[in-house]
Design a protein that fits this description.
The chain is of the alpha+beta class and 141 residues long. It has one domain: Cytidine Deaminase, domain 2 (3-Layer(aba) Sandwich). Helices cover 28% and strands 25% of the residues. The chain contains four helices and five strands. Strand 4 and strand 5 form a beta hairpin. The longest helix has 15 residues. It is globular, with a radius of gyration of 14 Å. The mean pLDDT is 95. The structure holds tetrahydrodeoxyuridine (THU). The site of tetrahydrodeoxyuridine (THU) has 15 residues, from helix 2.
């Protein structure tokens, strides 16, 4: 997959959409029935995917975004460049608040985050748009 500067077209995101869609089909979401897949690409062009994993103790549910980020870190990848969330929902799904904070840890403020669905709708944000004035690792130095 080739990252370009704008990434505003559906075509730019197709490889991540395909992977995130596949990940969404692995979601464990028996309580909400809301299946989410996430996929991201790092600076070495490696891609990572995740799905949401719910729990009978509802509060222990982990979103697709945080699941794949844990997986990427375990593969020694912390330089993520672009991230896509996929849901089969008419209204596009943006990352939840908790995920925005975790995304801000591993993607730069100008990195792109997108949401797509089965209707070929696409919305793109920067990390900074999703979480302005984020509390980032740089503030701890
Ligand atoms: N969910 C995600 O996986 N990512 C998001 O960005 C929003 C919400 C999951 C959590 C839960 O399993 C289901 O969607 C409904 O909230």
């Amino acid at each position: 997959m080739k990252l370009n500067k704008n990434m505003t077209n559906l075509n730019d995101w197709l490889p991540l959409i395909t992977q995130a869609k596949k990940a969404a089909s692995n979601a464990y979401a028996p309580y909400s029935n809301f299946h989410v897949g996430a996929a991201a690409i790092d600076s070495d062009n490696n891609t990572y995917t995740g799905c949401n994993v719910e729990n009978a103790s509802y509060g222990l549910t982990v979103c697709a975004e945080r699941n794949f980020i844990s997986f990427a870190v375990n593969q020694k990848s912390t330089n993520l460049k672009a991230l896509l969330v996929y849901t089969q929902q008419e209204k596009l799904t943006p990352p939840c608040g908790a995920c925005r904070q975790v995304i801000a840890e591993f993607l730069s403020q100008d990195a792109l985050v997108a949401s797509a669905n089965h209707l070929d709708h696409l919305k793109v944000w920067t990390v900074a748009e999703l979480l302005p004035d984020a509390f980032t690792p740089q503030l701890l130095t």
